[in-house]
């Protein structure tokens, strides 16, 4: 019997009481134990002992990624090092790594949070969880692993890489839940199909818990069709815990935030003003019971919104929408803001197209950005003439114009020329930085 974790169904007022208690404790902890927060609160004139309602949170100053970097390695610890059991670091996609430290309690919460993904997938101890996120400093592998163990699954610590072996193990061990980045899942799927396997017959997968990078709805559908399972999105980041901060349930209508451990806000990234539910903006997170690396109003730079209303699954924890991307990855093409995942979504409406692409950004002689989508058609698509290639390029480009109001050049490239990823895919090649 799949379990039903009570707190996920608690009345929201009860969750808000937990959040207020957690925030009160966290701001005091941070103020008393971490120099950065003492200085930042004092400078902003914020008294950490004055919080009496969730409305007070808007008065607290933010913490940014750079603040965490500046505190490297141990400057953001709220406990003595002897109480820290594990250290992780961000994968450094956008610069110097940041550190996430965990006490024994923090590790337990982490496992419990990710285990909710198994519960959301209707899973339990009868599941075999195949973890193909990278193990190591990256939070993906170990976080999913703790989740699998906490959910009682038979957990297989594959880590990323050696794709043919992954496929063998998926088949032979009868894995039912696959955890890895969506781009690696796609690589596994494509490789299995190339090997002549029929995932519906040869695999036993029911669910994939995929995250750590944005992926579009059309990418998801393609993956679900290829591997004959259901894909659930998982969100997390080193600075607050790793994967499990928010997870999608079977309804696939947004990711339930673990609201008993995190307090979410959406802000206008330009003004810092808190936005109402439903509006898109930057996600800001405050940890409620993190001991080693608490954060207060951490600006994630991830763009999403809080979905108004309750999920049909009946759980009361609020949901964030699927992440469009981070502010750093946003392209501004002739004044229009576009995320790579939106470009992906339009491209994936063309059945001729595979999921392998990169977006090159360059500048023209007037210093205006030029964006080129380099993408591979599916290997079985017959594009026998240059004219056929050019026609498809033009059609995709026109679809971008209609759907996103941006001019994107499209260049079809030979199959297998875009690098395959075993972790997070590199979607943007910024030639401007190389000039
Ligand atoms: P790095 O910042 O070096 O990539 P992390 O591994 O901590 O380090 O990555 C966390 C980031 O990954 C998040 O801030 C977000 O931008 C991205 N991310 C994580 N999960 C998702 C998801 N489900 N959808 C989209 N983006 C995600
Ligand atoms: Zn739900």
Descriptive key words:
9-stranded mixed β-sheet, 435 residues, 4-stranded antiparallel β-sheet, alpha/beta, 21 strands, binds zinc ion, 11 helices, binds adenosine-5'-diphosphate
What do these coordinates show?
- The chain is of the alpha/beta class and 435 residues long.
- The chain contains eleven helices and 21 strands.
- The strands form five sheets. A nine-stranded mixed β-sheet has the order 4-3-5-6-7-8-9-14-13. Strands 10-11-12-15 form a four-stranded antiparallel β-sheet. A four-stranded mixed β-sheet has the order 20-19-18-21.
- Strand 8 and strand 9 form a beta hairpin.
- The longest helix has 22 residues.
- It is globular and about 70 Å long.
- The N and C termini lie far apart (59 Å).
- 46% of the residues are buried.
- Bound molecules: adenosine-5'-diphosphate and zinc ion.
Summarize the structure.
The protein is α/β, with parallel strands linked by helices and 435 residues long. Helices cover 30% and strands 23% of the residues.
Q: Could you outline the blueprint of secondary structure elements for this entry?
A:
Elements: H1 12-33, H2 35-44, H3 65-70, E1 86-89, E2 99-102, H4 104-120, E3 128-131, H5 139-150, E4 154-157, H6 163-172, E5 177-180, H7 182-194, H8 199-202, E6 207-211, H9 217-227, E7 230-237, E8 242-248, E9 255-257, E10 262-267, E11 281-287, E12 298-304, E13 306-307, E14 319-320, E15 325-326, E16 331-333, E17 336-338, H10 340-347, E18 353-363, E19 369-377, H11 386-404, E20 409-412, E21 428-430
Parallel strand pairs: 3-4, 3-5, 5-6, 6-7, 18-21, 19-20
Antiparallel strand pairs: 1-2, 7-8, 8-9, 9-14, 10-11, 11-12, 12-15, 13-14, 16-17, 18-19
This protein binds adenosine-5'-diphosphate and zinc ion.
């Amino acid at each position: 019997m799949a379990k039903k974790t009570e707190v996920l169904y608690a009345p929201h007022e009860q969750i808000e009481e937990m959040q207020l208690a957690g925030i009160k404790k966290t701001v005091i902890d941070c103020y008393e134990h971490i120099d950065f927060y003492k200085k930042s609160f004092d400078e902003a004139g914020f008294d950490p002992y004055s919080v009496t309602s969730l409305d007070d949170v808007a008065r607290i100053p933010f913490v940014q990624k750079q603040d965490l970097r500046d505190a490297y390695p141990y400057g953001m610890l709220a406990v003595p090092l002897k109480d820290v059991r594990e250290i992780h670091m961000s994968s450094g996609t956008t610069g110097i790594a940041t550190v996430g430290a965990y006490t024994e309690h923090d590790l337990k919460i982490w496992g419990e949070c990710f285990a909710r993904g198994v519960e959301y997938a209707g899973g339990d101890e009868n599941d075999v969880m195949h973890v193909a996120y990278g193990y190591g400093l990256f939070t993906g592998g170990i976080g999913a692993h703790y989740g699998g163990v906490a959910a009682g699954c038979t957990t297989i610590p594959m880590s990323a890489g050696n794709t043919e072996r992954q496929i063998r193990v998926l088949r032979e061990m009868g894995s039912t839940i696959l955890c890895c980045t969506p781009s690696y899942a796609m690589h596994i799927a494509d490789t299995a199909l190339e090997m002549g396997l029929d995932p519906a017959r040869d695999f036993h997968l029911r669910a994939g818990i995929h995250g750590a990078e944005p992926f579009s709805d059309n990418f998801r559908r393609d993956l679900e069709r290829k591997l004959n399972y259901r894909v659930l999105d998982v969100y997390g980041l080193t600075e607050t815990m790793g994967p499990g901060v928010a997870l999608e349930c079977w309804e696939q209508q947004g990711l339930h935030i673990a609201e008993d451990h995190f307090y979410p806000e959406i802000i206008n990234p330009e003004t810092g003003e808190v936005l109402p539910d439903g509006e898109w903006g930057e996600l800001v997170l405050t940890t409620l019971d993190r001991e080693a690396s608490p954060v207060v109003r951490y600006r994630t730079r991830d763009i999403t919104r809080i979905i108004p209303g309750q999920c049909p699954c009946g759980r009361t924890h609020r949901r964030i929408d699927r992440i469009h991307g981070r502010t750093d990855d946003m392209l501004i093409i002739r004044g229009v803001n576009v995320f790579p995942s939106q470009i992906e979504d339009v491209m994936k409406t063309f059945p001729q197209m595979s999921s392998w692409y990169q977006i090159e950004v360059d500048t023209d002689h007037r210093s205006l950005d030029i964006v080129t989508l380099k993408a591979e058609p599916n290997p079985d698509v017959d594009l026998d003439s240059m004219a056929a290639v050019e026609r498809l390029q033009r059609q995709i480009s026109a679809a971008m114009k209609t759907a996103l109001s941006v001019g994107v050049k499209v260049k079809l490239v030979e199959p297998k020329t875009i690098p395959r990823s075993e972790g997070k895919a590199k979607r943007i090649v910024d030639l401007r930085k190389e000039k």
